[in-house]
Amino acid sequence: MSGGVDSSVAAALLLRQGFDVVGVTLHLWDYPDDDSARGRCCAPEDVHDARRVADVLGFPHFAFDRRELFRTEVIEPFVDGYLGGVTPSPCVRCNRGVKIRELLGLANRLGAAQIATGHYARIAREEGVARLYRGRDPKKDQSYFLHMLPQEILSRLVFPLGELTKAEVRQEALNLDLPGAQKGESQELCFVPTGRYDAFVAERATGRLRPGTLVDAAGQSVGEHAGTHGYTVGQRHHLGVALGYRAYVVAVEPEAGIVRLGRREQLLSSGAKLAEAVLADDFALPGEAEVAVRYSPQAVPCEVTRTLEGALQVAFKAPLASVVPGQYAVFYRGERVLGGGLIVESVAASNAHEPMESLT
């Protein structure tokens, strides 16, 4: 329980269905003594809010300190990723290495048969096997962040909100008069409430920042920058230079301190190489699917194969933009999630034309 609307309503729905519920909140992060984190996931008041909900609904609640685990599994890889020139996806790492993993262990200790969260996703039991599906609300679907969960975890997960829209969940919270029913949505990472990822990294990377040069497509210097950690492939805002055309970051080379700028067509990819791949047992390779290369309801057709070395490779049916190392490529077949992997390299499109997904 995060103390927010979603997990609170999830608990209420489970009680209505006759389950014995035990509320668990993981203390993951501390904020400075100001209002910068108020109303956001993992903010200081959230443990208190979760306990208030448990008291109102009448079930026990426990809080567990997992700040050190969150630091090693999420914060340090986040900082290292930006310093290494990639764009991390910390929510995937958090669900895989912290939240779901820890909840499984705590469920065993507390004697709980199942684990429930407020994620907008669905699990269907098909011939004795648990399968992951998108949530019914396309604007809130969170299956992307759960693609890597193995069968032994999926078989014990319950997503009470999977068939609901956010509007329906909000109304349920109001109907039940739950504490925090009017709480707003968190739009930024829970540990960077200001949205300033560059400042967050800089504060934790003393002596490791790499200032250097902004260069254009011809390799000519067009400006200086304070560190490559402040840039990500596909970025077009806050570049600090004007080139006479709409410029994007097309490459980040941290060792050399170089940020390369170019035109939009230079960002088109025909495919990607993946690591840390997890696939459903019935997804035979080579195989066709749809793929989402970042958290988005849009997925595009692709073919998935393995190289002779055993690495996973995805080829897009048409050139695609915003294929960024550090993000995850997640495979779907309709509403069903087939797995995914970490993007470690994008394959440049040889014959670039209008992509199926445009950059924003």
Would you kindly provide a written description of the structure presented here, covering whatever features stand out?
It is a single chain. This protein is of the alpha+beta class. The chain is 23% helix and 27% strand. The chain has seven helices and 16 strands. The chain has a six-stranded antiparallel beta barrel. A four-stranded mixed β-sheet has the order 8-7-10-9, with no helix packed on it. The protein has a two-stranded parallel ribbon with strand order 1-2. A hairpin with a 2-residue loop joins strand 15 and strand 16. Helix 3 runs antiparallel to helix 4. It is globular and about 65 Å long. The C terminus is likely disordered.
SSE diagram, text form:
Blueprint: H1 5-16, E1 23-27, H2 46-57, E2 61-65, H3 67-83, H4 90-110, E3 115-116, E4 121-126, E5 129-134, H5 151-154, E6 157-158, H6 166-176, H7 197-203, E7 212-215, E8 221-225, E9 248-253, E10 258-262, E11 269-279, E12 287-292, E13 300-306, E14 312-320, E15 328-333, E16 336-348
Helix pairs in contact: 1-2, 1-6, 3-4
Keywords:
single chain, four-stranded mixed beta sheet, 360 residues, globular, 16 strands, alpha+beta
Identify the quaternary structure here: single chain
Head-to-tail CA distance between termini: 33 Å
Beta strand %: 25-35%
Number of helices: 7
**Spans where pLDDT lies below 50 across 5 or more residues:** 352-360
